[in-house]
Write a structure and sequence with these properties.
Among the domains are: about 160 residues, no CATH class; about 130 residues, Sandwich (Immunoglobulin-like). Helix content is about 20%, strand content about 25%. The strands form seven sheets. An eight-stranded mixed beta sheet has the order 5-4-3-1-6-8-9-11. A six-stranded mixed beta sheet has the order 10-2-25-26-22-21, with no helix packed on it. α1 runs antiparallel to α7 and α8 packs parallel to α11. The termini are far apart. The N terminus is likely disordered.
């Protein structure tokens, strides 16, 4: 049912939303007919059957039935040290257009079968992906996962490790490091519980399992692709990628861009792993995009600098008080009408690619890269974190502290707000009123540390501000001065809101209001992160806190989500203009399938001198298609979702828009020659229970 459970639930939403950054947004409260047909069922008891829906755009994996003879599984333990081996993979996340995004309030918007209380997404621009890198070196392995999500949570991380262990016969517990890119323009509904529900809509188990499957499949693909490699590491500074957005403390930015380069033994670059305080929120609630946002521009524009396939992935660092930068762009006079946010995303990528080239010049790659890693759950709670007397009097956690208190900008010295720790919304009280009796803020969170050669990687949950990141780094280096390279990432493993130093928390403002466990959260977790790193560097010094261990493993028992049939013939509705001007935006429309069958792949093809068409490719060989920054895609259902159940037959009208000229220099622009579009997608024919593929080609157009 599309309603809030009670007026208390609405209060819960209003008061907890600041933990998810910024913005508005919402849901259409219109209830479609037969709404019970589309409500997911949740039973946390058993493994999930595959949904069987083809993903025509994702990279193919070896079929399970073809693996027995050639498969490296079960992966053997590494009893003797080995030199570095590296593998990588990436694919679109299987998120349907219409899924609600994460971090924006419920309110008016699009009703879809994939949303409950939030507005469904309406457009795609650089749709979300998963990227993984797997390393093998010394006597251990390590998996790095970057998801285009606002964040991740421990339930998801544990399932990745569990499912990958079952697939490979190797224990991945403590060896999987997962980070969200922190785009707000990606799917919500991936986490159960009241706090996630008010940030990201109600839990959708079929979507959880589908996204999980994409991650695990990508990890298996990366393992199968491992080859001998070398790694180089360097740090460069750039001021173009971010700005300090928090005014309640002194100006502070960490301009370092950490660059890891993985190359084959012949020197060919295989992958690039980045860590930087960028933040991921160029697009807002009113945009209704499914998008990778700022991190997507960085990754894709770096890829364009290579003449072969290179996997690029980025983790956020201490970006809790940062906003994405706005590099200047000199646009052509006849540029197409492109949203400013799109050009800003691309410009960030160009600036990052320039910085990467400088970093490469400073590297001395090596194949001697021993690995080690560990996880620890740190307990959370008012008593555990050291509150005394009437200090922060919220045993179930509190947030939105000081919502009615003015928080002036920094004027040269601290100006703590008196009793700010008393001016919070009681999470347990609000959760009980919203129908979640006994619910509190998380009582534990997951921290991790990994050694990658001589580099120490520390992963931190939620959104640390810059000072927290620097405090962790300083804390490790004071104990281990010989540990020169310490890299700290945020938005990793779990989400518990913002973390600031205690003195900074009392300055008030947006970031301070988003800590679920009040003023001591930042310093408490800083200390725990240093202790986790200490145990990794010196196993004789185990963490001094009691690790409560993980939550019970989240296993869903749900049926397949229904796929609506497509009415009538799959066909082209609007052909692209035959001779567009340089300032035009080409529009191409066709009927296709239910968005649950995922985004149709529309490829740009060019006519050769012999009259044959072939896909237009970037310098790295990747196709120019709807998964890149060149296109925006929308879909209009008839009848609309407001007037009929999601499983009734529909016409799904897909619309693709491509600007002829871009403001930011791009690999395949300006276009010149004769082109067409080719579409590959899936649909369920009316009257059929099965899913079929389709292919369409447009008329030619000349540029």
């Amino acid at each position: 049912m599309r309603h809030l459970r009670s007026s208390w639930k609405l209060l819960f939403v209003v008061f907890l939303l600041p933990m998810a950054c910024s913005g508005g947004g919402g849901t259409d409260t219109t209830e479609p007919a037969d709404a019970e047909d589309v409500s997911p069922r949740v039973d946390v008891v058993a493994d999930v059957p595959a949904d069987g829906v083809p993903d025509v755009a994702s990279d193919a994996l070896p079929a399970d039935g073809a693996e027995p003879d050639a498969s490296p599984f079960p992966l053997p333990p590494l009893n003797e040290p080995v030199k570095l081996r590296y593998g990588a993979a990436g694919r679109p996340l299987p998120i349907p257009l219409g899924a609600p995004t994460c971090g924006f309030m419920p309110g008016p918007g699009s009703v879809t079968p994939f949303s409950e209380n939030f507005s469904g997404s309406e457009k795609t621009f650089m749709p979300p992906t998963v990227r993984v890198m797997v390393l093998e070196g010394g006597t251990s392995r390590l998996l790095l996962v970057r998801l285009d999500l606002i964040a991740t949570n421990t339930l998801f991380v544990e399932r990745i490790a569990h499912d990958l262990t079952e697939r490979t016969g190797y224990d991945w517990s403590g060896k999987v490091f997962v980070a969200g890119s922190h785009t707000h323009s990606s799917a919500g509904r991936l986490s159960p519980g009241p706090i996630w529900e008010v940030m990201a809509d109600t839990y959708f188990p079929q979507l959880f399992d589908r996204v999980l499957g994409a991650v695990v499949d990508s990890a298996v693909e990366a393992i199968l692709a491992m080859k001998p490699a070398r790694m180089g590491y360097a740090v460069v500074e750039t001021t173009e990628l971010h700005n300090d957005r928090r005014c309640q403390n002194p100006e502070l930015r960490d301009d370092r861009l950490h660059v890891f380069r993985f190359e084959g033994l012949d020197g060919t670059v295989l992958g690039v792993f980045l860590v930087h305080s960028l933040h991921g929120t160029i697009f807002g609630a009113d945009d209704h995009y499914l998008s990778r946002d700022s991190v997507g521009g960085v990754e894709d524009k770096i890829k364009e600098r290579f003449d072969h396939r290179v996997e690029v992935m980025m983790f956020q660092a201490g970006a809790g008080d940062m906003s994405p930068g706005s590099p200047k762009v000199e646009a052509p006079a006849d540029v197409s009408d492109i949203p400013d946010g799109f050009s800003r995303v691309e410009a960030l990528g160009v600036a990052a690619a320039d910085a990467i080239e400088e970093a490469f010049k400073k590297m001395e790659p090596t194949d001697d890269v021993p690995l080690s890693s560990l996880w620890h759950y740190a307990p959370l709670g008012r008593d555990i974190m050291g509150y005394e007397g009437d200090e922060f009097p919220f045993p179930g956690g509190g947030a939105y502290c000081g919502s009615t208190v003015d928080a002036p900008c920094w004027e040269g010295e601290p100006t703590p707000i008196a009793d700010l720790d008393k001016k919070c919304m009681d999470i347990a009280f609000l959760a009980e009123g919203a129908g979640f009796p006994g619910e509190t803020a998380p009582d534990r969170t997951l921290l991790g540390a990994a050694r990658i050669g001589d580099i120490l990687l520390v992963v931190f949950p939620g959104e640390p501000v810059t000072q927290v990141l620097l405090n962790i780094e300083d804390g490790v280096k004071k104990l281990y001065p010989e540990q020169k390279n310490v890299v700290v990432t945020g938005y990793s493993m779990d989400y518990i809101g913002y973390s600031t130093p205690e003195w900074d928390w009392y300055q008030g403002g947006y970031e301070a209001s988003g800590a679920m466990w009040g003023p001591k959260q930042g310093d408490y977790l800083t200390a725990r992160a240093v202790e986790v790193a200490t145990e990794l560097l010196d196993p004789a010094k185990p963490v001094p806190f009691t690790d409560p261990g993980p939550y019970p493993l989240l296993l869903n028992e749900v049926g397949d989500f229904p796929v609506a049939p497509s009415v009538g013939e799959i066909k082209i509705v609007t052909q692209p203009a035959a001779a567009p001007k340089a300032s035009d935006t080409l529009v191409f429309e066709f009927t296709g399938g239910d968005p649950w069958l995922l985004l149709p792949q529309v490829l740009l093809e060019k006519k050769s001198e012999d009259g044959q068409f072939a896909p237009v490719t970037r310098p790295d060989g990747s196709s120019v298609d709807t998964f890149g920054y060149e296109f925006m895609t929308t879909m209009t259902p008839t009848p609309s979702y407001k007037t009929a159940s999601s499983v009734k037959p529909r016409t799904f009208l897909w619309r693709v828009e491509m600007p002829v000229t871009r403001a930011v220099p791009a690999a395949v622009f300006p276009l010149a020659g004769t082109y067409r579009y080719r579409v590959v997608g899936s649909y369920r024919p009316e009257g059929s229970a099965g899913v079929e593929s389709y292919e369409l080609t447009s008329t030619e157009f000349t540029l």
